[in-house]
Design a protein that fits this description.
Length: 126
């Protein structure tokens, strides 16, 4: 089955400039901005500029340039936040909620970068 992408999702609107955002970094292939409802002292979302619903969609259909550009942007934001291990930062968590079971609210690929305090266990046991 083919992937389907809804161009009216809120991050598509942010990419088109229809909704404002607090930009951390913009590159040819990625946009990073502060989450509107932060769950940690640092909470930045990084999205690819292309129309991909999920990481698996992106990994299978994005160009090499998009994949490299997006991945590098994630690393760059971690450096900008001062949380990367290359500069003895305190670390962070990357989350890509995906689909129904992953409890993804916005159907445009995004990773959450969460940092700024110890984040506790990854998930609660069911
Ligand atoms: P998901 O549950 O899809 O992984 O996460 C969606 C995230 O997008 C949530 O953390 C939510 O707070 C954030 N979000 C939803 N709408 C907006 C918005 O209009 N602007 C920003 N900056 N973040 C948003």
């Amino acid at each position: 089955m083919a992937y389907s992408y809804d161009p009216e999702n809120i991050f598509a609107k942010i990419l088109r400039g229809e909704i404002p955002n607090s930009t951390v970094l913009e590159t040819d292939h990625a946009l990073a901005f502060h989450d509107i409802a932060p769950a940690a002292p640092d909470h930045v979302l990084v999205i690819p500029k292309g129309p991909y619903v999920s990481y698996d969609h992106f990994a299978s259909e994005a160009s090499d340039a998009e994949i490299v550009g997006y991945t590098r942007a994630i690393g760059e934001v971690c450096k900008m936040l001062g949380v990367d291990l290359g500069h003895e930062g305190e670390g962070f968590r990357l989350i890509a909620n995906t689909g129904r079971n992953g409890v993804q609210d916005v159907p445009h690929l995004h990773v959450h970068i969460l940092a700024g305090r110890p984040l506790g266990p990854m998930i609660k046991k069911a």
